[in-house]
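Changelog note: in this version the structure field was regenerated for every chain. One regenerated record is shown below for reference.
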Amino acid sequence: MSITITLIIQGLAFFAVALLVMRFGWPNIMTAIETRRTKIAEGLAAADRSQHALDEAKVQALGIIREARDQAVQIVDQAGRAAGATVEEARGTALSEGARLLAAARDEVASETSKVRDQLRAEVAALAVAGAAQLLKREVDATAHAALLDELANRIVTAR
């Protein structure tokens, strides 16, 4: 066989295979390529949407963090003011309670002082009557004794 016939047969075989591939294989290949291209485009679009959503989420997160910090500062300030008010209220209560206790103590001291003075007056009067009885060398009866004590107590009170 000659080389020309071989080349012609090989050329016809090549074109026949190319025609079969283009007729039956090529549409399947193009469909697969187009499907792949569509999936890749959708994936890239989804990645872009995801990146955009991530950026928005970061901005929102920073906003929420900023708001939380502001609220925390406000809460701390309110707590400080409440603590100060509580301290001032407690201080005022303590001062008024102290003043009340001091007044009660002074009243009690005045009452006790008055009682002691009255007892002292009675004892002084009794001593004076006893001294007078010694001087007179006689015993004074009980009614006269009580009258003398009252008179002496009145003199001591009015002398004050």
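Spot check on this record: Helices lie at 3-136, 142-159. Residues 3-136 form the longest helix (134 residues).
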